[in-house]
Amino acid sequence: MLYRKKGERSFTLLETIIALGLMVTILLEVASVQGNALNFSTYERNLTQATWLGKALLAQIEYKANFYPLSEMNMELKEQEFKDDLCPKDSDFGCDFRYDLTIKEWKLPLIDIILGNQSSEDESAEPNPMTEMIKDQLKSTLGDELLKVAHIKVTWPEGSKRNDVQLTYLLTNQLVLDQKIEQLSPPGGEKSQPTPTCADGQVMDADGKCVPIDSDNL
Question: What does the DSSP 8-state code read for residue 71?
């Protein structure tokens, strides 16, 4: 039988309750920090994957812009699924990403900005004849559409909501410009051999033959 020494005291009921309360509070805080770290890690992984999926789509758009006129690069897609080669649908991988894609003309008065024309800001001002002549020449050479913007929004489920990441890419009428440059005569009047080109929607293979490009939707 144990006997308590003289002057020795045990914890009171109040001290025990306070100690248990502190321990429970600390355990809850530790669990909360660990849960937030896990959620943040999952979000970062999904964000990185969604960004690379969006970049893959932009790379396809950039490639097709080298063979199709800018006037044909119009697109508006909603809630599209990625192809299996980019985003496998099997249960082991668990790729549940979707994307919205729009390609629209950028209404930017680029020529007026370069030439310092103020007529676009002041409607009452008379247009500059020299500016109008340059604009007409550029339109006849490059077409009416000079710039377009491709906007991609990649979404994925996160609990009861859907998170997203958005990417943009500027498209220029580079194809028409390259074709016009190839038609220019070299300096000194020397005639150069014309560079073989393919029709719109075709690309030259390794054998020098023009073959159609895969024109399926992205």
Answer: G
User: 187: which DSSP letter?
Assistant: G
> pTM for the complete prediction?
0.57
The pair of structure tokens assigned to 49 is 């994957």
Report the candidate in 116, 147, 122 with the shortest Cα–Cα distance to residue 134.
116
Domain spans, the chain: 13-186
**What does the pLDDT look like over 152-211, one tens digit per residue?**
999 988 878 888 999 998 888 777 666 666 666 666 555 555 566 676 667 777 676 777
The two tokens of residue 167 are: 């990417």
**Which stretches of the chain are DSSP H helices?**
13-64, 110-115, 129-142, 174-183
134 and 94 Cβ atoms separated by less than 8 Å: no
Using the structure block, give the residue that is written with the tokens 């005639």: 191
Identity at 27, one-letter amino acid code? L
**Three-state secondary-structure class, residue 147:** strand
| 47-65 pLDDT tens trace | 888 999 999 999 999 888 8
Rounded Cα distance, 181 and 195, in Å: 11
Q: Where are the beta strands (DSSP E) in 72-146?
A: 75-81, 98-105
d(CA 101, CA 166): 10
Residue 147 main-chain phi, psi, to 5 deg:
-135, 145
Distances (CA, A) of 39 to 48, 82, 89, 161: 14, 24, 23, 14
- Tell the residue number behind the tokens 């980019």, with chain if given: 86
Query: Structure tokens of 162?
Result: 């859907």
**Three-state DSSP class for residue 76:** strand
